[in-house]
Predict the structure.
Amino acid sequence: MRQVIRNVKILGTGSFVPETIYTNKYLETIIPTNDEWVQSNLGIKERHIASPDETTSDLAAKAGWDAIADSGLSVDDIDLIIVATATPDRKAPSTAAIVQHKIGAYNAAAFDIAAVCSGFLFAMSIGTQYIASGVYNNVLIIGADTFSRIVDWTRRDAVFFGDGAGAAVLTSANVTEGFLAYRLYTDSSHDNLGFTVPAGGSEIPITPEVLEKGLQYFQMDGKAVFNSAVQALPRAIDQVLEDTGLSISDISLMIPHQPSIKILKKTAEIIGLPFEKVMTNMDRYANTSSGTIPILLDEVKKSGRIHKGDNILFAAVGSGWTYGASIIKWG
Ligand SMILES: CC(C)(COP(=O)(O)OP(=O)(O)OC[C@H]1O[C@@H](n2cnc3c(N)ncnc32)[C@H](O)[C@@H]1OP(=O)(O)O)[C@@H](O)C(=O)NCCC(=O)NCCS
C-alpha cells in the first residue's frame, strides 16, 4: 500500500431535504410550544420532515448524487462512501451499503459512522485520512438523519429537529489548498447522558413496555447541551487556530453545526468572530443532526459566498459529547 501525504479538498457538494414542511405555527397546534419562543431561543422557523415511506438512505442517496454531479466525477470514480447518521434505515446492513446500491457506486467500499451531530465532521476527517495516505482518491461523505422518527410528537422538544442530508466529494489537492487541520474530541466523563435515545440497542431492546414508556424517543437536557456546547466549540476552534497558526481574523466564514442560534452567538462571542461570518440556516431546516454542516456548506458554496483562498472553519458538537473543528483553505 502506498503511504503518501497528499492535501485534500472538497470537489463537490450536494444536499437534499424532504418536501413536507412543519412550521412553528403548525407545531403550536399539536404540542405545547410557541413560535415566538422557538424563533428567539433556537432561531428556527420551520423544518422539513420525511414522509412515512422516505428513509435516511433516500435522503442520503439524493444528497450524494447531487454532490457527485457537482464534482464532475462519475459514480464509478467513488472509492469510498462514509455515511454519518444516528438514524440508520436499519441495524443491518449499514445505511452506507444501502446508499451504495441506490446511487450505483459499486466500486466503492461503504460504511457508517456514529458521532450524532458531529458525525459529518468526524466522517470528513476519516475520508481525508484515506486520501492523504494515498489509499483512496475520491471519497463521498454524507451526513443524513431523519430525527423525526425518534421525536415524540406530543412533547415540546419536538421543535428542535428536522430531517435532511448533505454530502461532499473529497479528492486530492495541490499544496496550496485543502484541509489545514482537524481536531476531534470525545468527552464521556459526565455522569448523565445529556442527549440520548435509550431504547433500540443492546441495552434496552424494543418491547411493548419500552414503547409504552416512549424510550425509543430522544431525551435531552437542554441546559446540559447548551453548557457543554459553549465550552466544547471554542476549545476545538482555538486548537485548530493554534495548529494552523491562523488567527480568528483570518477566518473568512464559519460553517458550524446548527444546534441553536443562542449557542452559535455565544460561541462567536467567545472566539471573537463577527456573527456575520457565522453561516446559519436553522431558520429553515432546524437541527438536521449530521446533515447540518453539509447542507449549509452546499448552500453557501452554491450561493457564491466562498472564494478561492478563503479559510473556512467547520465546528460541531453532539451527543457523547463528541465535538471538533476543522479549517480548509478553499482552492
Ligand atoms: C433549549 C434552551 C433554549 C432552553 O433554555 P432553558 O433556559 O434551559 O429552558 P428550560 O427548559 O428551563 O425552559 C425555560 C422556559 O422556556 C420555555 N420553553 C422551553 N422549551 C420550550 C419549547 N419547546 N417551546 C416553547 N417554550 C419553551 C418555557 O417557558 C420554559 O418554562 P417552563 O419550564 O416553566 O415551562 C437551551 O437549554 C438550549 O439552547 N439548549 C441547547 C439545546 C440544543 O441545542 N439541542 C439540540 C442539539 S442536541
Remarks:
- The mean pLDDT is 97.
- Residues 8 and 103 are 23 Å apart (CA to CA).
- DSSP finds ten helices and 13 strands in the chain.
